[in-house]
Amino acid sequence: MHYGEEADAVKAYLNQGLQRALELDNRGPIRFDSDGKLSSDILEAYSQYGFYVFESAISPEELVDIQADMDELRDRFPVARGANVDRLGRKALGVDCKGPGLRWSKPLSDPFGGTSISNGRHQVKLKELAASEDAPDDAPFILSGSLQFSDAALRIYAHPLLLRVAEAINGEDFAPFNEVLFIKDPGLGAAVSWHQDGDTHWAHEAFDEGIHGFNFMAQVYGSTPVNGVWAVPGTHKLGKIDIKAMVEEAGSERLTDAVPLVCEAGDVVICNRQLVHGSFANAGFEPRLTINFGFHRRSSVLNVKGAGIHSPAQVYTDEIIRKRSRVIGYAIDARQQKYPDEQPFEYKPFAQRNETFRWNDSARAELKDYNLLDLSI
User: Fold this and answer.
1) pLDDT digit string (tens) for 287-327?
2) How many domains does the chain have?
3) 101 DSSP assignment
4) How far is CA 299 from CA 47, 201, 207, 318, in A?
5) Alpha-carbon distance 302 to 360, whole Å?
6) How would you classify the pairing of strands 139-144 and 27-28?
7) What's the CATH number where 75 sits?
8) Which stretches within 31-190 are classed as H helix?
9) What's the domain range around 203?
10) Which stretch of DSSP H or E encloses residue 270?
């Protein structure tokens, strides 16, 4: 297939995927029934497809705050890979952290695909594209431990409606997972090869569709078929999948049944971690910046040895889970300070232990390197 035919095939794939995505009945506002439980049709659609788009979950007021915070955050990035200062000569964000921080990538590359990174879960390599001649050698790609760097991300982490969703899906004693920013700048953003996020529980005797948890994906600028995540609906129920075989059957990296997670700015997607998903290099003209944060069932992590992907492998004792969960308490108070008229979420494990949290300078210092305790399964 020559270049013109390939371009036409890609365009058709994007348009067809968009049409299929919009035909699914898995998008709308967060809704609860009269008894306070998450609406049954949302739960059913999430179970059927493995993802749901919560439209306008972030208010316009908060979205403006987040966008301003993201601009300030990016000003604090190292001026280049390996640099210790930002563009203004200040000490760059995260340079003195022990935990994972800012990860860079070659523009329009696929840094994970076909490698042993993340225990080899990115089984195939997606097409790497040629960036423009004036593109930098490296571009910001993933910021791990994002809650220690961004107050806006910390506040959205405690969004009361989103935490009520987490409680509905994973129980009152749900546990944290991991938080990152995904940065897909136009003409630069790298691909993330098709994969499933789960690692430890594929052969578990109690395996089911939710055992590896989920991620919320809050969209700061929106998400399109070009720059956004694609997913294959329903694959979260099928166990560990041979993705190489899926690609071979499709005849290309464009998986036949995949759909893009199309969003407007302020939408938040809930995405099952077992779902086959990935994203192509952002060769388009629109940016994507996703505030990503996930949650687990406590039973999925308690006394389980971690996968060693997002943090050093260790057995997650009750003490470790309790310590890692403190960020929820700080986030709830940080949000309450910013939005005092909003009803805050009550995290039941804190209430049962009569624990209280105050977001201040001492708490900020405590969050440094908090992601070394990410509950990675």
Assistant:
1) 999 999 999 999 999 999 999 999 999 999 999 999 999 99
2) 1
3) -
4) 19, 12, 12, 11
5) 29
6) unpaired
7) 2.60.120.620
8) 40-49, 60-75, 117-120, 151-157, 160-170
9) 3-373
10) strand 268-272
